[in-house]
Specification:
Layout: H1 2-14, E1 17-25, E2 28-35, H2 43-58, E3 64-67
Parallel strand pairs: 2-3
Antiparallel strand pairs: 1-2
């Protein structure tokens, strides 16, 4: 799971943000977006369009990623 997040981290960090895995439960990964991504209006697009896409492709047992 962390390896999948490592694929998206450089882009997120380039914009002044960070993403951390909190837990995986019932096919759902819970992440926390920090820094510039924490309050960014586009964070949901980043979450669903980039993070969830890569995580669900790399970690088949995860079906959804939710921000906490």
């Amino acid at each position: 799971m962390n390896a999948a997040l490592d694929k998206v981290r450089p882009g997120i960090q380039a914009d002044g943000g960070e993403v951390w895995l909190i837990k995986v439960e019932n096919e759902t990964a819970f992440v926390q977006m920090l820094g510039a991504c924490g309050g960014c209006p586009a964070s949901n697009f980043t979450l669903k369009g980039a993070i969830e896409t890569i995580v669900t492709a790399d970690v088949p047992e995860v079906k959804e990623v939710i921000q906490v």
